[in-house]
Structure formats: C-alpha cells, structure tokens
Amino acid sequence: MLFGAHISISKGYKHAVKEALSIGANTLQFFTRNPRGSAAKALDHVDINNMR
User: What is the pTM of this model?
Assistant: First the structure.
C-alpha cells in the first residue's frame, strides 16, 4: 500500500521529498503548475539531481 500526499514544490523538489518523508509518506505527487492555468515552474536541474 502506498501512502502519500500532494506536496508543494514552491521550496524546491528536494524540500518536497523531505516534506513527504517527514509525514511518513512512501510516495508523493506534485504538480509542475497550478491546474487553474498559471505558468509551469521552471525546472531546476540541480535541485532535481539533489532530490534523487
């Protein structure tokens, strides 16, 4: 069974993973943009590599 939550990426992908782990999640879902139509957040490849 997977337990997770929608996690904000406003503070970066690495922070999102830490936040998910802090609540005991073993999966997470994040959105690259607001579904209401705002622009997608630019990808930060350094942050993505740090997330891994």
Answer: 0.66
